[in-house]
Design brief:
Layout: E1 4-10, E2 14-19, E3 28-33, E4 36-41, E5 45-48, E6 57-65, E7 78-81
Antiparallel strand pairs: 1-2, 2-5, 3-4, 3-6, 6-7
Length: 84
């Protein structure tokens, strides 16, 4: 099952949180920005420090993984425009 409720908060960095995948064995999560994996985490949050401001638009997703190579369905896409 896919991770749920992906949300973004600017603080001033891009801070992502999501609900863990239910009913499946998950060791961690891949964080994707604009369709490209940028991090692998074991919890349900991530702070993206490698973004540019100035009205730049980014899309994020997360997907669970396990030690056997299995991947969950990606979360819904959440986008954000960084302030100027």
């Amino acid at each position: 099952m896919q991770p749920g409720n992906l949300s973004i908060v600017l603080n001033p960095d891009v801070y992502l949180t999501w609900d863990r995948s239910e009913g499946v064995y998950v060791d961690g999560y891949n964080v994707l920005r604009d369709g490209v994996k940028i991090a692998e985490v074991t919890g349900t949050s991530y702070t993206d420090l490698d973004v540019m401001g100035g009205g730049t638009y980014y899309e994020y997703q997360v997907m669970g993984f396990n030690k056997f190579g299995g991947l969950s369905i990606p979360s819904a896409v959440v986008g954000i425009v960084l302030p100027l």
